[in-house]
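Researcher: Structure for this, please.
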Amino acid sequence: MSWVTLNDMRTWLVAGALAFALIALFAPRIDLTRDAYDVLAVIDITTSMNTRDEASGAETVSRLRAAKTALREMLAKLPCGSHLGLGFFTERRTFLLFDPIEVCENFAAIDEAIAQLDWRMAWEGDSYVSRGLYSAIEVAKSLDADLIFITDGHELPPLPFSGLPPFDGKPGDVGGLIVGIGSRTPTPLLKYDEEGREIGTYAAQEVPQENRSGAPPPDASTRPGYHPKWAPFGNAVVDNSEHMAVVREAYLKQLASVTGLSYAYFGQREDLLEPLVAAAHARPLKVASDIRALPGSLALILLVFLYGLGAVAAGRALIRSSLNLPPPKGAK
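Model: Predicted structure, C-alpha coordinate format:
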Protein backbone atom coordinates (compact mmCIF):
# COMPACT_ATOMS: atom_id res chain seq x y z
CA MET A 1 0.00 0.00 0.00
CA SER A 2 1.52 3.30 -1.11
CA TRP A 3 2.03 6.39 1.00
CA VAL A 4 -0.34 8.28 -1.29
CA THR A 5 -3.09 5.79 -0.53
CA LEU A 6 -2.46 5.95 3.21
CA ASN A 7 -2.55 9.71 3.06
CA ASP A 8 -5.88 9.68 1.31
CA MET A 9 -8.56 11.00 3.69
CA ARG A 10 -11.05 8.46 2.45
CA THR A 11 -8.74 5.62 3.43
CA TRP A 12 -8.43 7.00 6.92
CA LEU A 13 -12.21 7.36 7.16
CA VAL A 14 -12.73 3.74 6.11
CA ALA A 15 -10.09 2.57 8.57
CA GLY A 16 -11.63 4.60 11.40
CA ALA A 17 -15.15 3.38 10.63
CA LEU A 18 -13.90 -0.22 10.58
CA ALA A 19 -12.08 0.23 13.90
CA PHE A 20 -15.12 1.73 15.63
CA ALA A 21 -17.35 -1.00 14.16
CA LEU A 22 -15.05 -3.69 15.61
CA ILE A 23 -15.07 -1.95 18.98
CA ALA A 24 -18.89 -1.85 18.87
CA LEU A 25 -18.98 -5.58 18.15
CA PHE A 26 -16.68 -6.65 20.96
CA ALA A 27 -16.97 -3.88 23.57
CA PRO A 28 -17.81 -5.30 27.02
CA ARG A 29 -20.51 -3.95 29.28
CA ILE A 30 -19.21 -1.67 32.01
CA ASP A 31 -20.59 -1.10 35.48
CA LEU A 32 -21.83 2.44 36.14
CA THR A 33 -23.21 3.75 39.42
CA ARG A 34 -26.35 5.87 39.47
CA ASP A 35 -28.85 6.97 42.10
CA ALA A 36 -32.04 5.04 42.75
CA TYR A 37 -34.80 5.77 45.27
CA ASP A 38 -37.08 3.75 47.54
CA VAL A 39 -40.23 5.76 48.14
CA LEU A 40 -43.64 5.35 49.72
CA ALA A 41 -46.18 7.71 48.16
CA VAL A 42 -49.26 8.57 50.23
CA ILE A 43 -52.14 10.69 48.96
CA ASP A 44 -54.78 12.36 51.13
CA ILE A 45 -58.26 11.24 49.90
CA THR A 46 -60.37 13.13 52.44
CA THR A 47 -63.27 15.43 51.48
CA SER A 48 -61.29 18.65 51.07
CA MET A 49 -59.18 16.98 48.36
CA ASN A 50 -62.27 17.03 46.11
CA THR A 51 -62.06 20.82 45.92
CA ARG A 52 -61.66 21.88 42.30
CA ASP A 53 -59.02 24.60 42.39
CA GLU A 54 -56.08 23.06 40.51
CA ALA A 55 -55.38 24.07 36.91
CA SER A 56 -54.73 21.36 34.34
CA GLY A 57 -54.33 23.10 31.00
CA ALA A 58 -57.59 24.94 30.35
CA GLU A 59 -59.44 22.72 32.83
CA THR A 60 -59.87 23.15 36.58
CA VAL A 61 -59.62 19.83 38.38
CA SER A 62 -59.79 18.55 41.93
CA ARG A 63 -56.78 18.47 44.21
CA LEU A 64 -56.98 14.68 44.28
CA ARG A 65 -56.91 14.41 40.50
CA ALA A 66 -53.99 16.85 40.27
CA ALA A 67 -52.10 14.88 42.94
CA LYS A 68 -52.62 11.61 41.07
CA THR A 69 -51.50 13.14 37.78
CA ALA A 70 -48.36 14.59 39.36
CA LEU A 71 -47.53 11.27 41.03
CA ARG A 72 -47.97 9.36 37.76
CA GLU A 73 -45.65 11.80 36.02
CA MET A 74 -43.09 11.38 38.80
CA LEU A 75 -43.34 7.60 38.41
CA ALA A 76 -42.43 7.92 34.73
CA LYS A 77 -39.32 9.94 35.62
CA LEU A 78 -37.95 7.74 38.40
CA PRO A 79 -34.80 5.91 37.28
CA CYS A 80 -35.02 2.15 36.77
CA GLY A 81 -33.97 0.28 39.89
CA SER A 82 -36.03 2.63 42.07
CA HIS A 83 -38.95 1.27 44.09
CA LEU A 84 -42.31 2.94 44.70
CA GLY A 85 -45.00 1.87 47.16
CA LEU A 86 -48.50 3.36 47.38
CA GLY A 87 -50.89 4.23 50.17
CA PHE A 88 -53.63 6.68 50.99
CA PHE A 89 -54.60 8.68 54.06
CA THR A 90 -58.05 9.06 55.54
CA GLU A 91 -59.42 9.64 59.05
CA ARG A 92 -56.28 9.27 61.21
CA ARG A 93 -54.14 6.61 59.57
CA THR A 94 -52.34 5.68 56.37
CA PHE A 95 -53.49 2.54 54.59
CA LEU A 96 -50.76 0.74 52.63
CA LEU A 97 -51.88 -0.64 49.27
CA PHE A 98 -48.59 -2.30 48.35
CA ASP A 99 -44.92 -2.30 49.37
CA PRO A 100 -42.37 -0.45 47.21
CA ILE A 101 -41.76 -2.39 43.98
CA GLU A 102 -39.41 -1.81 41.05
CA VAL A 103 -40.78 1.01 38.91
CA CYS A 104 -39.76 -0.11 35.41
CA GLU A 105 -40.77 -3.76 35.62
CA ASN A 106 -44.06 -2.85 37.32
CA PHE A 107 -44.74 0.52 35.69
CA ALA A 108 -48.18 -0.34 34.26
CA ALA A 109 -49.45 -1.85 37.52
CA ILE A 110 -48.26 1.08 39.66
CA ASP A 111 -49.59 3.65 37.20
CA GLU A 112 -53.02 2.00 37.12
CA ALA A 113 -53.14 1.74 40.92
CA ILE A 114 -52.49 5.48 41.25
CA ALA A 115 -55.12 6.27 38.62
CA GLN A 116 -57.75 4.24 40.50
CA LEU A 117 -57.36 6.07 43.83
CA ASP A 118 -60.74 7.56 44.75
CA TRP A 119 -62.15 9.59 47.64
CA ARG A 120 -64.86 6.93 48.06
CA MET A 121 -62.20 4.61 49.48
CA ALA A 122 -62.36 6.66 52.70
CA TRP A 123 -64.08 4.91 55.62
CA GLU A 124 -64.53 8.04 57.77
CA GLY A 125 -65.19 11.71 57.13
CA ASP A 126 -62.66 12.98 59.67
CA SER A 127 -59.23 14.22 58.60
CA TYR A 128 -56.58 14.09 61.32
CA VAL A 129 -53.71 15.08 59.04
CA SER A 130 -51.00 15.06 61.70
CA ARG A 131 -51.85 11.55 62.87
CA GLY A 132 -52.14 10.38 59.27
CA LEU A 133 -48.66 11.75 58.57
CA TYR A 134 -47.22 10.14 61.69
CA SER A 135 -48.78 6.86 60.60
CA ALA A 136 -47.27 7.22 57.11
CA ILE A 137 -43.82 7.84 58.62
CA GLU A 138 -44.12 4.66 60.69
CA VAL A 139 -45.08 2.65 57.61
CA ALA A 140 -42.26 4.16 55.52
CA LYS A 141 -39.74 3.40 58.26
CA SER A 142 -40.85 -0.23 58.43
CA LEU A 143 -40.31 -0.48 54.68
CA ASP A 144 -36.92 1.30 54.82
CA ALA A 145 -38.29 3.86 52.37
CA ASP A 146 -38.51 7.62 52.06
CA LEU A 147 -41.92 9.28 52.08
CA ILE A 148 -43.85 11.64 49.85
CA PHE A 149 -47.08 12.73 51.54
CA ILE A 150 -49.50 14.80 49.43
CA THR A 151 -52.20 16.72 51.29
CA ASP A 152 -53.88 20.11 51.61
CA GLY A 153 -53.38 20.03 55.38
CA HIS A 154 -57.08 20.49 56.22
CA GLU A 155 -57.69 19.06 59.70
CA LEU A 156 -61.33 18.19 60.36
CA PRO A 157 -62.21 18.58 63.17
CA PRO A 158 -59.64 21.32 63.76
CA LEU A 159 -56.73 20.77 66.11
CA PRO A 160 -57.50 21.32 69.79
CA PHE A 161 -56.15 24.46 71.42
CA SER A 162 -53.31 22.38 72.88
CA GLY A 163 -51.92 22.10 69.34
CA LEU A 164 -50.19 19.26 67.54
CA PRO A 165 -50.23 15.77 69.03
CA PRO A 166 -46.70 14.70 70.02
CA PHE A 167 -44.53 13.01 67.41
CA ASP A 168 -43.06 9.84 68.90
CA GLY A 169 -40.58 9.19 66.11
CA LYS A 170 -37.10 10.58 65.59
CA PRO A 171 -37.12 13.71 63.37
CA GLY A 172 -35.29 13.03 60.12
CA ASP A 173 -35.25 9.27 60.64
CA VAL A 174 -37.38 8.99 57.50
CA GLY A 175 -36.46 11.29 54.64
CA GLY A 176 -38.82 12.72 52.11
CA LEU A 177 -41.35 15.37 51.43
CA ILE A 178 -44.67 16.83 52.48
CA VAL A 179 -46.37 18.29 49.41
CA GLY A 180 -48.97 20.99 50.04
CA ILE A 181 -51.62 21.03 47.33
CA GLY A 182 -54.55 23.36 46.74
CA SER A 183 -55.20 27.02 46.13
CA ARG A 184 -54.20 29.68 48.63
CA THR A 185 -57.61 31.25 47.98
CA PRO A 186 -60.39 29.78 50.17
CA THR A 187 -63.05 27.73 48.36
CA PRO A 188 -66.21 26.25 49.96
CA LEU A 189 -65.99 22.56 50.82
CA LEU A 190 -68.03 20.38 48.48
CA LYS A 191 -70.92 18.40 49.94
CA TYR A 192 -72.02 14.91 48.89
CA ASP A 193 -75.03 12.74 49.67
CA GLU A 194 -74.93 9.12 50.83
CA GLU A 195 -74.69 7.95 47.22
CA GLY A 196 -71.58 10.03 46.60
CA ARG A 197 -73.35 12.63 44.47
CA GLU A 198 -72.35 16.26 44.74
CA ILE A 199 -75.19 18.29 46.24
CA GLY A 200 -73.64 21.68 46.93
CA THR A 201 -71.27 23.14 49.50
CA TYR A 202 -71.09 23.18 53.29
CA ALA A 203 -72.33 26.14 55.30
CA ALA A 204 -70.36 27.36 58.32
CA GLN A 205 -72.79 25.83 60.83
CA GLU A 206 -72.45 22.38 59.20
CA VAL A 207 -68.73 22.08 59.90
CA PRO A 208 -67.01 22.10 63.33
CA GLN A 209 -65.38 25.50 63.58
CA GLU A 210 -63.24 24.65 66.59
CA ASN A 211 -62.23 21.60 68.57
CA ARG A 212 -63.85 21.63 72.00
CA SER A 213 -62.11 18.56 73.33
CA GLY A 214 -59.41 19.05 75.90
CA ALA A 215 -58.57 22.29 77.68
CA PRO A 216 -60.32 25.51 76.55
CA PRO A 217 -58.35 28.41 75.05
CA PRO A 218 -56.68 30.98 77.32
CA ASP A 219 -59.29 33.62 76.46
CA ALA A 220 -62.25 31.33 77.25
CA SER A 221 -63.27 33.32 80.33
CA THR A 222 -63.88 36.40 78.16
CA ARG A 223 -66.28 34.59 75.83
CA PRO A 224 -70.05 35.16 76.05
CA GLY A 225 -71.80 32.49 78.11
CA TYR A 226 -68.59 31.24 79.73
CA HIS A 227 -68.92 28.97 82.73
CA PRO A 228 -65.89 27.09 84.10
CA LYS A 229 -67.91 23.87 84.51
CA TRP A 230 -70.95 23.98 82.21
CA ALA A 231 -69.67 26.08 79.34
CA PRO A 232 -65.84 26.27 79.46
CA PHE A 233 -65.75 27.33 75.78
CA GLY A 234 -68.61 29.79 76.08
CA ASN A 235 -71.75 29.62 73.94
CA ALA A 236 -70.92 32.09 71.20
CA VAL A 237 -71.18 30.98 67.56
CA VAL A 238 -67.66 30.72 66.16
CA ASP A 239 -66.70 31.01 62.50
CA ASN A 240 -63.08 30.08 61.84
CA SER A 241 -63.71 29.40 58.14
CA GLU A 242 -63.26 25.65 58.63
CA HIS A 243 -65.94 25.13 55.95
CA MET A 244 -63.58 26.75 53.43
CA ALA A 245 -60.92 24.64 51.70
CA VAL A 246 -57.51 26.26 51.44
CA VAL A 247 -54.02 24.78 51.55
CA ARG A 248 -52.78 25.09 55.14
CA GLU A 249 -49.15 25.85 54.39
CA ALA A 250 -48.15 27.22 57.79
CA TYR A 251 -49.49 24.05 59.41
CA LEU A 252 -47.77 21.74 56.89
CA LYS A 253 -44.47 23.56 57.38
CA GLN A 254 -44.87 23.06 61.12
CA LEU A 255 -45.42 19.34 60.55
CA ALA A 256 -42.34 19.22 58.33
CA SER A 257 -40.28 20.87 61.07
CA VAL A 258 -41.54 18.46 63.74
CA THR A 259 -40.94 15.32 61.67
CA GLY A 260 -37.73 16.34 59.88
CA LEU A 261 -39.32 16.12 56.44
CA SER A 262 -39.00 18.78 53.75
CA TYR A 263 -41.93 20.82 52.47
CA ALA A 264 -42.85 21.84 48.92
CA TYR A 265 -45.89 23.66 47.60
CA PHE A 266 -47.35 22.03 44.51
CA GLY A 267 -49.01 25.05 42.90
CA GLN A 268 -48.24 25.01 39.18
CA ARG A 269 -45.10 22.89 39.67
CA GLU A 270 -46.44 19.61 38.22
CA ASP A 271 -43.01 18.07 38.89
CA LEU A 272 -42.53 16.20 42.15
CA LEU A 273 -39.28 14.45 41.28
CA GLU A 274 -36.96 17.45 41.72
CA PRO A 275 -38.02 18.31 45.31
CA LEU A 276 -38.21 14.61 46.20
CA VAL A 277 -34.66 13.96 44.99
CA ALA A 278 -33.45 16.93 47.07
CA ALA A 279 -35.11 15.52 50.21
CA ALA A 280 -34.80 11.75 49.79
CA HIS A 281 -31.93 9.38 50.53
CA ALA A 282 -30.47 8.19 47.24
CA ARG A 283 -29.38 4.57 47.01
CA PRO A 284 -26.31 3.97 44.81
CA LEU A 285 -27.10 1.33 42.23
CA LYS A 286 -24.57 -0.43 40.01
CA VAL A 287 -25.89 -0.93 36.50
CA ALA A 288 -24.25 -2.91 33.71
CA SER A 289 -24.33 -0.41 30.86
CA ASP A 290 -24.05 -1.22 27.18
CA ILE A 291 -21.65 1.31 25.60
CA ARG A 292 -21.70 -0.21 22.09
CA ALA A 293 -23.95 2.54 20.83
CA LEU A 294 -21.14 5.10 21.19
CA PRO A 295 -18.50 3.48 18.93
CA GLY A 296 -21.28 2.31 16.61
CA SER A 297 -22.48 5.89 16.24
CA LEU A 298 -18.95 7.14 15.57
CA ALA A 299 -18.50 4.49 12.86
CA LEU A 300 -21.75 5.63 11.25
CA ILE A 301 -20.69 9.29 11.36
CA LEU A 302 -17.38 8.48 9.64
CA LEU A 303 -19.17 6.51 6.92
CA VAL A 304 -21.63 9.34 6.35
CA PHE A 305 -18.70 11.76 6.08
CA LEU A 306 -16.91 9.37 3.68
CA TYR A 307 -19.85 9.11 1.31
CA GLY A 308 -20.43 12.83 1.66
CA LEU A 309 -16.89 13.46 0.38
CA GLY A 310 -17.57 11.10 -2.52
CA ALA A 311 -20.78 12.94 -3.38
CA VAL A 312 -18.98 16.32 -3.26
CA ALA A 313 -16.16 15.04 -5.49
CA ALA A 314 -18.64 13.58 -7.98
CA GLY A 315 -20.57 16.85 -8.05
CA ARG A 316 -17.45 18.87 -8.72
CA ALA A 317 -16.40 16.49 -11.50
CA LEU A 318 -19.84 16.78 -13.09
CA ILE A 319 -19.69 20.59 -13.01
CA ARG A 320 -16.18 20.66 -14.54
CA SER A 321 -17.27 18.23 -17.22
CA SER A 322 -20.32 20.31 -18.12
CA LEU A 323 -18.19 23.46 -18.28
CA ASN A 324 -15.30 21.73 -20.13
CA LEU A 325 -12.89 22.75 -17.38
CA PRO A 326 -9.53 20.97 -17.00
CA PRO A 327 -9.13 18.68 -13.96
CA PRO A 328 -7.46 20.22 -10.90
CA LYS A 329 -3.70 19.98 -10.59
CA GLY A 330 -2.47 16.73 -9.06
CA ALA A 331 -5.64 14.83 -10.01
CA LYS A 332 -5.21 11.49 -11.79
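Researcher: Any notable elements?
Model: The chain is about 35% helix and 20% strand. Confidence is low (pLDDT under 50) at residues 1-7.
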